[in-house]
Request: fold
Amino acid sequence: MSRRTPAEWEPQEAVWLAWPHSLDTWPGRFDRMPAFFAKWATLMAESTAVRILLPESLAGDAKALLPKNNHLELVFCPTNDSWVRDYGPTFVHDSEIGGLVGIDWHYNAWGGKYPPWDADDAAAARICDHIGIPAIRSKLCLEGGAIETDGQGRLLTTPECLITSTRNPDWSSEAISQELHAQMGVTEILWLSGGGLVGDDTDGHIDQLARFLDPCNIVVAVCDDPNDPNHKPLEDNYRQLRLWGETSEPKVNVHRLPIPAKREVDGQRVPESYCNFLMLGRQRLLVPTFGQPAADEHAIAVIRELACGAQVESIDCQDLIWGLGALHCASRDQPKACEA
Reply:
């Protein structure tokens, strides 16, 4: 296999963010977001380089909130929104060139939901150019939050985010699988088909539903309240993962990670899930919390037990989630160029 997509616990070169500027993403709460992103970036920069995409016109605003820090870099690039996980490149080790390449998927704002998206669709190539690696444009429409890999060729995804008329109208599941193999080195795919979270406008991104902690351990979002509409679809996902984990090689242990109780903002349920954590290699692991202490603390305990020694830290995401995403959605990890 000439390509391998590294797992997020492997050594990282940097983490990418996109400076918030879309008032429509956090209606009524946008004024809190620049300070949140600045604090978050500064926290990550204690151990990891952080590169922040932003229009040059916002440089002054960002510099006013960010400390002078050699681990913080502003990269001038127009964007439409802040969800760089979904439109940033998928970084892949390519043995033929002896380094990283960036897979530049087509992007259309989750099936055409939020125009315009032209600047976001162009950002992956700009990122690759900035760090001096090839950008390989795929014909497939895919968001980064829709795929989860163990670094060994296994990939989790959901059919609702790939096999759809709004994203890939002329693609079969077989054709999509072949493209994922060709671009990412994927050798095994689990199409998790139970369903996504109420309020999730991505149609069911996997990074809200199930995540690898290492090749043998997955956490899966579940809902312990049988009266919650999330209960049945998430239980279906859990059962499907358990069955798959028993037969996949190496065997995968599946751990329940209960979501917090229903919470609404301005009458709309927000899709809160602790699966939307961010790994900074094996050094640190950042977990979103949602202002529900018992649920927050339980999630942190579950993840800490599986974190392979990483320092587990919590970040209050009660405002960030009003944009319908959390830490993983709003970041894009860049692995080291050389194989570990």
Observations:
- The two ends are 17 Å apart (CA to CA).
- Residues 231-247 form the longest helix (17 residues).
- The longest strand covers residues 99-106.
